[in-house]
Design brief:
The complex is a heterodimer of chains A (about 425) and B (about 280). Chain A is an alpha/beta fold and about 425 residues long. Chain A is built from 14 helices and 16 strands. In chain A, the strands form three sheets. Chain A has a seven-stranded mixed beta sheet, sandwiched between helices. In chain A, strands 1-11-13-12-15-16 form a six-stranded mixed beta sheet, with helices on both faces. In chain A, strand 5, helix 5 and strand 6 form a beta-alpha-beta unit. By secondary structure, chain B is an alpha/beta fold. Chain B has one domain: 3-Layer(aba) Sandwich (Rossmann fold). In chain B, helix 3 packs across helix 8, helix 5 crosses helix 6 and helix 6 packs across helix 7. In chain B, about 50% of the residues are buried. Classes of the chains: A alpha/beta (about 425), B alpha/beta (about 280). Chains A and B meet through helix 4, helix 5 and strand 10 of A and strand 2, helix 4, helix 6 and helix 12 of B.
Chain lengths: ~425, ~280
């Protein structure tokens, strides 16, 4: 299914940095293993939101707290049925604020925790996301984007939360945001999001398009033996040596859980390496630098980008999610007519794939950035293509609840060639 | 209840790390912290299995001083974080320390829903009738006509009766005491921590530096005397004439009943589903 025969996927810009060393499969009791193995791993028709739920389970998520909201509710519904079977916790909270807080609390107690929401709920969660980031607590927020602002069009697609997922919480904070373009990839990137949250001790956001959440495609999930699961590093030092925010060269530090005997302190206040609040400028700067460098030092591991038909292209399209699917169809039509067009698609949208974009768009005459918003990604592309004039970096923007179609993109391609 | 020597109290403090504390002279928060420690010590709980969670405010600064698993969270959200911890590790004792503004204004929604679920959290709500940390603004428990920096002409709003709110929401253990009644407080804390279900203890406390000054209550000793003289045990309410009851702080256990606890209900559900039950 969805074999990318024509496309070349450059994983992490360099495949070397793939997180292989620390990975091990989740330990589960025999009953749960039985349930896992009895699930049929044949090709089935599946919805994007279902893929997220099964990806979460396969990644070892054992705690979900959420609040119903269209178009993400199916994730909660499936996990409400599945988690009790596997010894995990499902709880429907009183609102989205409580949901992000509950998963953060559970994660500090040792759970692999995830929540799923959509636009308005994502806005409500922003303070809690900031708390998870400053306290370096692993958790995953799935945001199935719908059209905004405010209540907007709850069942219509939009890609309006790209900037919010980066800058939504107040203050400077790191952001790791993944963006799938298919049901299969929704499954894969959910697992990756959970793995990255455990590895980098941060709140990871999975941005989905409404249409991917609700679209059904045929998918064959991998056997559990082929699913790579990363678990957080546990401290090995005695409790009195434990630093909750210890540093190693890659800014990845072990994480104890409440109840492990370490009795550490966690606060949303700016803190020192032990986790105690501080007003000292040096310690504040250290904390902020650690949050930033955790991303910048590991950018090769974090960034994933797909390059499709780019080698001989004169025109490049930069698009994410469902819009990239339309772009691929447009490229096929354009190439049939002899127009050389290619696509660059971020699987990791934050941190933004700066190096890949700079390198791969350098020799292109035109860049087209179709997106379902009033121009969010195009700001980043213009920032990275200073050598091109604004008339060579063109946007296609649509926010009316409708998708950008392959013909819309083809029309733009023909305008410039 | 046991008399806990001072030395034991010290063993529960992170005094090498975070002292002196942030609280003003005359503040009741230290008295409450002492009572919590004595309750924990007399129960002889393993400290590794106790979590203290708080929100934002003067009272919520407490966890940093006590040597437990401690979590200082967002304004109003302590109960939501505590819910996550308790559900994942139900064997742990989860104590929430919060204030009137933190728990009944910004966090009111989490309070009522945790009470409704009857999840086994012990919520210690220190009610000083004002926002102290931000400098004296009106809170949901600032009495009618009292002065606050955001009610300079007197508070025109009625105040919350926190215990009635918790009772209405379904809390299975509700008690009220004051910062003056230290042994009573310690006993209530112990009963609440041992209680299998949602418990809320409201501790009426003194903020002499801000609330007391704005409302001409005198210093800390005068406010403590007021708690002593102006409060009655709830058991005496029916026996006393009406005029002696009116306007008094009613201390006591307002409810202590056993009803299904949320974590246990979830464990039962899991057992049912895993054995092929379900609907």
């Amino acid at each position: 299914m969805l074999k990318k025969t024509t496309s070349k996927t450059t994983k992490a810009q360099s495949t070397k940095a793939a997180p292989a060393k620390k990975s091990k499969t989740v330990k589960q009791d025999s009953k749960i293993q039985e349930l896992q193995s009895s699930r049929e791993r044949k090709t089935i028709i599946m919805q994007g939101n279902e893929a997220v739920a099964y990806g979460a389970l396969d990644a070892g998520v054992n705690f979900f707290a959420g609040y119903p909201i269209t178009p993400s509710t199916e994730v909660a519904e499936i996990l409400a049925a599945e988690l009790p079977k596997r010894g995990g916790v499902f709880v429907q909270m009183e609102d989205e604020i409580a949901s992000i807080c509950a998963i953060t609390g559970a994660s500090l107690a040792g759970a692999k925790a995830l929540t799923a929401t959509s636009g308005p709920g994502f806005s409500l969660m922003q303070e809690g996301i900031g708390f998870a980031k400053i306290t370096e607590t692993p958790c995953v927020v799935v945001n199935v984007q719908r059209m905004g602002p405010s209540t907007g069009m709850p069942t219509s697609p939009a890609q309006g939360d790209i900037m919010q997922s980066r800058w939504g919480s107040h203050g400077d904070s790191p952001a790791i945001v993944l963006y799938p373009d298919s049901v299969k990839e929704a499954y894969e990137l959910t697992i990756r999001a959970v793995n990255l949250s455990e590895k980098y001790r941060s709140c990871i956001v999975l941005l989905m398009d409404e249409v991917i959440g609700h679209m059904r495609e045929s998918v064959r999930l991998p056997d559990m033996a082929n699913v790579r699961v990363i678990n957080r590093i546990k401290p090995t030092v005695p409790p009195h040596w434990y630093k909750h925010y210890d540093e190693n060269q890659k800014y990845l530090s072990p994480l104890a859980s409440f109840g492990d005997g370490y009795r550490f302190h966690v606060t949303g206040l700016t803190h020192d390496a032990h986790g105690f609040p501080t007003n000292k400028s040096g310690e504040a700067a250290d904390m902020m630098e650690r949050l930033r460098k955790k991303i910048t030092y590991n950018i090769r591991d974090l960034v994933q980008i797909e390059s499709h038909e780019m080698d001989d292209a004169k025109i490049a399209i930069f698009a994410a999610g469902i819009t990239a699917r339309a772009a691929k169809a447009a490229i096929a039509m354009a190439r049939y007519e002899g127009i050389k067009v290619g696509l660059l698609r971020p699987l990791t949208i934050w941190p933004f794939p700066d190096d890949a974009v700079r390198k791969m768009l350098r020799d292109k005459d035109y860049v087209i950035v179709p997106e379902l918003n009033q121009g969010q990604m195009i700001r980043e592309i213009r920032r990275l293509t200073k050598d091109k004039s604004d008339s060579n970096v063109l946007g296609i923007q649509r926010v009316n609840g409708q998708l950008i179609t392959p013909l819309d993109i083809l029309r733009k391609i023909k305008e410039v060639c | 209840m046991a008399n806990i020597p001072q030395k034991v109290v010290h063993q529960y403090l992170r005094h090498d790390k975070k002292f002196p504390h942030v609280w003003c002279a005359g503040c009741s928060n230290g008295i409450v912290l002492g009572a919590i420690i004595r309750a924990l010590a007399s129960m002889q709980l393993n400290r590794d299995d106790v979590v203290m969670v708080s929100g934002i405010g003067c009272s919520s600064r407490m966890p940093v001083y006590i040597d437990l698993n401690t979590l200082h969270t967002l304004h109003g959200r302590s109960i939501a974080y505590a819910t996550g911890i308790k559900l994942h590790k139900p064997h742990m004792k989860v104590i929430v320390v919060t204030g009137d503004g933190d728990c009944t204004a910004i966090g009111g929604n989490h309070l009522i829903h945790a009470a409704r679920r009857n999840i086994d959290l012990s919520v210690i709500l220190i009610n000083n009738n004002i926002y102290g940390m931000t400098g004296g603004q009106c809170s949901p428990t600032t009495p009618h006509d009292a002065i606050a920096t955001t009610a300079p002409y007197g508070n025109i709003e009625p105040d919350f009766n926190i215990c009635n709110l918790a009772l209405g929401a379904g809390a299975s253990f509700v008690a009220r005491t004051t910062a003056f009644h230290v042994m009573e407080m310690q006993n209530y804390f112990q009963a609440a921590i041992e209680h299998p279900g949602f418990s809320l203890i409201e501790v009426i406390s003194a903020c002499p530096v801000i609330y007391g000054r704005l409302n001409k209550k005198g210093g800390a000793p005068q406010m403590m005397k007021e708690f002593r003289d102006n409060s009655i045990p709830i058991t005496a309410v029916d026996k006393l004439p009406k005029e002696q009851v009116e306007g008094k702080i009613q201390r006591g256990i307002l409810r202590q009943e056993i009803r299904p606890e949320f974590c246990q209900a979830y464990a039962d559900l899991m057992a049912k589903v895993q054995s092929g039950g379900g609907k």
